[in-house]
Amino acid sequence: MVSTHTDKARLFRSLHDAARPLALANAWDVASARVIEAAGADGIFVPGVTDPATVTELATAIPVPLNIMAVPGAPDLAALGRLGVARVSVGAGLAQTAYTATHRAARALYDTGDYHPLADVIPFPELDGMFPGTS
Questions:
Q1: 70 three-class SS
Q2: What is the DSSP letter of 116?
Q3: Are strands 44-46 and 87-89 parallel, antiparallel or unpaired?
Q4: Least confidently predicted of 11-15, 46-50, 87-91, 95-99
Q5: Per-residue pLDDT tens for 22-51?
Q6: Where residue 3 falls among pLDDT bands split at 50, 70, 90?
Q7: Percent of the chain with pLDDT over 90
Q8: CB 65: neighbour CB atoms within 10 A?
Q9: Using CA atoms in the order 89, 84, 55, 2, what is the torsion angle rounded to 10 degrees?
């Protein structure tokens, strides 16, 4: 029985062997979720599922927490919670959003020579306040 985060980390590390790579499965339907759960998973991650009926089917069919990937077109957080989702991941979505904003601002600066893309930003004092206890 693995009981602490340290024990889980040790177990996870012990599964890594250069001669035999570790494969971590993501479920794609109820059957695969049940197989992964039966193999000892503490939760099931099903990326790409956005249909509420499928989400509900997964959440009611497996006894461990369900994790869904948040993507455009997926139900909002409150709706996913009502459907039985325990965790919502954004994957690279936030980074992609930041890259998109950077690209658009750089493109506008290059195309127009105007600094208006730099006007609507979070001021440094506010940014610093997001990370209390750091300097």
A1: coil
A2: G
A3: unpaired
A4: 11-15
A5: 566 788 889 989 988 888 888 899 988 999
A6: low
A7: 49
A8: 15
A9: 60
State in words which class domain 22-90 has.
Answer: alpha beta
Look up residue 123 and give its amino acid.
P
Mean pLDDT calculated for residue range 44-68: 93
Any idea where the domains of the chain sit in the sequence? 22-90, 94-129
Question: Which residue type sits at 12?
Answer: F
Instruction: Centre a 10 Å sphere on the Cβ of residue 105 and count the other Cβ atoms it contains.
Output: 16
Q: How far apart are CA 67 and CA 91, in angstroms?
A: 12
Q: Which two tokens stand for residue 100?
A: 């998109």
pTM here is 0.68
| Alpha-carbon gap, residue 30 to 10, rounded angstroms | 30
Q: How many residues appear in the chain?
A: 135
- Average pLDDT, integer, range 85-103: 93
**How is residue 23 written in tokens?**
């494969």
3-state secondary structure of 120: coil
Q: Can you point out the beta strands (E) in the chain?
A: 44-46, 66-69, 87-89
Residue 94 · residue 82 · CB < 8 Å: no
Closest CA to 55 of 36, 40, 76: 76
